[in-house]
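Schema walkthrough. Field components (list of strings):
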Amino acid sequence: MEQALVNAIRYLGAGLAIGLGAIGPGIGIGILMQGALQAMGRNPDASSNIQTNMILGVAFAEAIAIYALVVALILMFVVK
Amino acid sequence: MKRPIKWLIFIGLIVFSCAWMGSPLINFGKFPVIKLPSETVFSIGPLTVTNTLITTVIADIALLTFAFVATRKIRRGSPDAEVPRGAQNIFELLIDMLYSLSKSVAGSKAMKVFPWMATIFLFVLFANWTELFPGIDSIGLIERAHEGTGYPKQEIVPGFLYTIDQGQGKEITIPATASQSTESSAGQPEAYQVLPFFRTPTSDINTTLALALITMFMVQVFGVRALGGHYFYKFVNIPELKRGGLGYMMFIVGFLELISEVARILSFTFRLLGNIFAGGVLLLVMAYIVPFFVPIPFLGLELFVGFIQALVFAMLALVFMNMAMQGHGDHEAEHH
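Field assembly_structure (string):
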């Protein structure tokens, strides 16, 4: 019973960690893509340059979600 | 000559999709066992061979074969090589794309960093795409569970082919701390786990950490090669300290640079690991929930994610190497 309760809280924590952790990067990547697409629409000649920086920015924003994922994975698989 | 190859590809695709469609038939109603660390399949002396290592070697061989086949005409000096076809065409397209990318980021220094980022890209691409094959993560040796959760086994072909039965059997949890579990669990029914032969290399933290460490080490090497000892002023900014005033600020910022180098290793590692591991879990869970047709778009998604993650890894390596090769003056000019 004790272990079942610990497991329940662990799964809840893992779910909350990735769920809440994905909100910020999601909004961030949305704003980033909006800016990049607007810039590409206004100046299509610069799109290769913008694309490079866009993917970089997306990667950095995504890294935050990945930290949340790591916390969730640790809660799921490492913590006993 | 051309026609048999086309038919071969067609038949291969049919076999591939049948294998994907067929695997849930055997596994229907059985939730996949998800494990983060890779498992040791066998060991040669002190060297343990994990299932991710086996798949890494397979991905390497596939990449080498592909490169060998693609450049065969060029090495023979055949006049046919002038107009690329087939595998050579794909390879030239890839290399051209990567080279123009490194040209647009690094400019005149493109040729220095291009081999590194292209190697990383090709390896990570092939390693990521191994997760799309059926049988990865699901076919392997059946063995008694030493720790964690095990399930009763079920015979399909007696003495040869087994599956673990998660439908009716109850979970048997053996505490990880009990090292003498063989004696203590003797009374319990036997618990079995599947030890897969193959697992996507980049879903193992060891592979991604090694790639991240190699990349960040080479970033430092490129920095020292381009700027000499002045490169380390980026971290411990002695000339700015001598100037006083705002220089103290710059000195402290140098330590932040040092922390960010370490953070880059971590984010390199976990970005690739997280994406590919989550992708593998997604494919398994989708095949569990709806075995037919529904997993197909997710296979397409994973094809895309594998490519994008390889591109992101290579591009970040390229940008970091380029940033390290620029002097501190150029670096500030970027910020305005």
